[in-house]
Amino acid sequence: MTTIIPMPGNHTAALELARAIGAKVCEVTARRFPDGESYVRLMQPVEGERVIIVCTLADPDAQFLRLVFAAGAARVAGASRVELIAPYLAYMRQDRRFADGEAVSARHFARLLSQTFDRITTIDPHLHRIADLSEIFTVPARALHGAPLLARWVVEHVENALIIGPDEESRQWVEEVAQAAGAPHAVLHKVRQGDAKVAIRLPDLAFAKGRQPVLVDDIVSSGATMLEAAAKLRAAGFPAPICLAVHGLFSLDAYALLKAVCKTVVTTGSVPHPSNAISVAPLLREAIHLH
Ligand code: R5P
């Protein structure tokens, strides 16, 4: 039998998944001692169970230790396997050493997770120079693909769409969403100038005048990419774009700034947020049966 353990803040995706596959749920009590250390307790027995801990890792430094403690507690309690579903997997962007002495966090983080879990499942990790998760994980690790979910949302909610990728890296989502939605697409040219500063150039979009731009990306982090793309589209005479992303991290005031310039801002439930309008449960359910 399977038991799902939702880490704090992960109940929506975890409970939808548990319902979808008919799994039991084991609650976790987690709190901080006055000195800042973490206390973790599993509230139900998991002996003999295939345990799947659901924990998105959008705030990894705060979440990681209690996740390790929950996995350890499940093993000590007799779980037959302990797996992780991290709908958003952090630390994948620092995938090489850009300056002497830098930690290549993607590799270190993957090693730590591999030591803790028997299997890892995530959605659209930001793999750039790493072609496959198997290059950095030593346990089976599977990347699910959110584009079909985004495409379905576009088909159901947008008429006369123009699907736009803000940079070359978004092309994989953009082409798939555009094809599934039967809409034209374009990819913009982006140069990153700092953690929260980008320059974006538009190609000739005359062919798409009058269409509703839908900006599609894997991650919104500082929001700089979406904000700059939206500004350039408005300046070129397009209506306020729709901002559509798999993972909405929205650091600082990114969400408020985006809502002010976009028609709407929509993300999947990979990171719990008010912009969530697309459930990731169907994707996760498939993955559980695929293993
Ligand atoms: C980068 O290549 C990613 O696909 C996103 O475009 C990027 O992470 C977004 O970051 P930000 O919101 O900080 O511009």
Give the SSE layout.
Elements: E1 2-6, H1 11-21, E2 24-25, E3 28-32, E4 38-42, E5 50-54, H2 60-76, E6 81-86, H3 105-116, E7 119-123, E8 141-144, H4 147-157, E9 161-165, H5 171-181, E10 185-187, E11 189-194, E12 197-201, E13 212-220, H6 224-235, E14 242-248, H7 254-261, E15 264-268, E16 276-278, H8 281-290
Parallel strand pairs: 1-2, 1-5, 5-6, 6-7, 7-8, 9-10, 9-13, 13-14, 14-15, 15-16
Antiparallel strand pairs: 3-4, 11-12
Helix pairs in contact: 1-8, 4-5, 6-7
Bound molecules: ribose-5-phosphate.
What labels describe this entry?
291 residues; 6-stranded parallel beta sheet; 27% strand; binds ribose-5-phosphate
How is the main sheet built? 6 strands, parallel
Instruction: Say how many strands there are.
Output: 16
- Give average pLDDT, whole number: 96
Order of helices and strands: EHEEEEHEHEEHEHEEEEHEHEEH
Write out the distinct hetero groups bound to the structure.
ribose-5-phosphate
What helical percentage do the residues reach? 25-40%
Q: What is the C-alpha radius of gyration, as a whole number of Å?
A: 20 Å
Distance between the termini: 14 Å
Please provide a written account of the structure:
The protein has about 290 residues and is of the alpha/beta class. It contains 8 helices and 16 strands. Helix 1 crosses helix 8, helix 4 (about 145-155) crosses helix 5 and helix 6 (about 225-235) runs parallel beside helix 7. It has helices at about 10-20, 60-75, 105-115, 145-155, 170-180, 225-235, 255-260, 280-290; strands at about 1-5, 25, 30, 40, 50-55, 80-85, 120-125, 140-145, 160-165, 185, 190-195, 195-200, 210-220, 240-250, 265-270, 275-280. The chain is about 30% helix and about 25% strand.
